[in-house]
Design brief:
single chain
């Protein structure tokens, strides 16, 4: 559930998407958004044996996995989303932040599998963030950890939907890419004409994928626009890594479709500004294995886990928690071996 689209999918236990659907986010009216979610679930479960539903919402979701406290890009304000949907969907249901869901997918099945500390950043309308530590998703005391997109990077800078100015996502997101491309088009002159020809649309119809497609086709201005976003991305990643020291930073979301056109400048800016550079190991910067599907894959897997480990079992901001295997004592092991000898005799 993002600022521009409602993506849904049926996901099996290995993280494979069996079927997917996508529609534009209908409006900023919470009821219309709920209708779109219910319609997507009903369409998919009519063709598949669905056992649980996970919602990845672009907003700050409390630790009960039920209430969207605030969404910068949608009209959710203390929205009891799980309760509203539970009355219309007769299946076990959880709600989580969309970037938490994406992070969980990448840790479980994707680019972060097997890592000790993994940061996941999703670049779409804004910047979402998720953190997995030793196999456990960290959600914070109130469920609102990982909102690095709203770190102020430019005091007094561009107005952000969250209410602040100069947030990181205002310079390193799909919105930032579109804003800068539109500014170039509206400036007029030969460069604007050349960019308009490469994009194939005017400023009002322009979207991020138009810029990405033009850059991948080799248009120099589109490449430069993506490089600017990538540079800002790398500068912010350096701050995140300085605070968390992760093994890997996984980058997903719609803007990540640009691949190395984005990641190359991001890596250069990150490595040239990270504190302690030259005297420390660098976190790896990797593109998300699931790209734009990570949120729906992770939401589905979290819903499946919630069937046996309810979200209210979370302690100290971690959920789901890694299940520890019971260790057999020496005495128990000896008894087991003795019993086997008796049976074999």
């Amino acid at each position: 559930m993002g600022g521009t689209k409602v993506a849904a999918g049926v996901v099996d236990e290995s993280g494979r998407v069996l079927e997917r659907s996508q529609v534009p986010t209908p409006s900023h009216d919470p009821k219309a958004v709920e209708d779109a979610i219910v319609d997507a679930v009903n369409r998919l479960r009519a063709r598949h044996p669905v056992e649980a539903v996970g919602i990845g919402a672009a907003g700050w979701v409390d630790n009960t996995q039920s209430i969207v406290r605030f969404s910068p890009h949608l009209a959710w304000r203390d929205e009891p989303l799980r309760a509203a949907l539970a009355g219309r969907i007769d299946l076990p249901l959880i709600v989580d932040n969309d970037a938490n869901a994406a992070a969980w997918a990448e840790y479980r099945f994707g680019a972060g599998a097997g890592t000790s500390v993994m940061v996941c950043l999703t670049l779409g309308t804004g910047i979402g963030g998720g953190l997995v530590i030793n196999g456990e998703l960290f959600r914070g005391t109130y469920g609102m950890a990982g909102e690095w997109g709203h770190m102020v990077k430019v005091p007094g800078g561009h107005q952000c939907e969250c209410g602040n100015r100069g947030c990181w996502e205002q310079y390193a997101s799909g919105n930032a890419l579109v804003r800068e491309a539109r500014a170039r088009l509206r400036a007029g002159g030969p460069q604007a004409d050349a960019l308009a020809a490469a994009l194939g649309v005017g400023p009002d119809a322009l979207t991020g994928p138009h810029v990405t497609a033009a850059a991948m086709a080799g248009d120099p201005q589109a490449v430069e626009l993506l490089a600017d976003v990538g540079t800002w991305m790398g500068l912010g990643i350096a701050d995140v890594v300085a605070g968390l020291d992760p093994e890997v930073v996984v980058i997903g979301g719609g803007v990540s479709a640009a691949g190395e056109l984005l990641l190359g400048p991001a890596r250069q800016a990150f490595e040239s500004t990270l504190t302690g550079r030259g005297f420390r190991a660098y976190a790896r910067l990797e593109l998300a294995g699931f790209r734009n599907d990570a949120g729906l894959v992770g939401a589905a897997d979290l819903a499946r886990l919630a069937l046996r480990e309810p979200p209210d079992s979370a302690l100290f901001g971690f959920w789901p928690r890694r299940r520890k295997r019971r260790k057999r004592g020496v005495g128990q092991l000896g008894e087991t071996r003795a019993r086997r000898r008796e049976l074999s005799a």
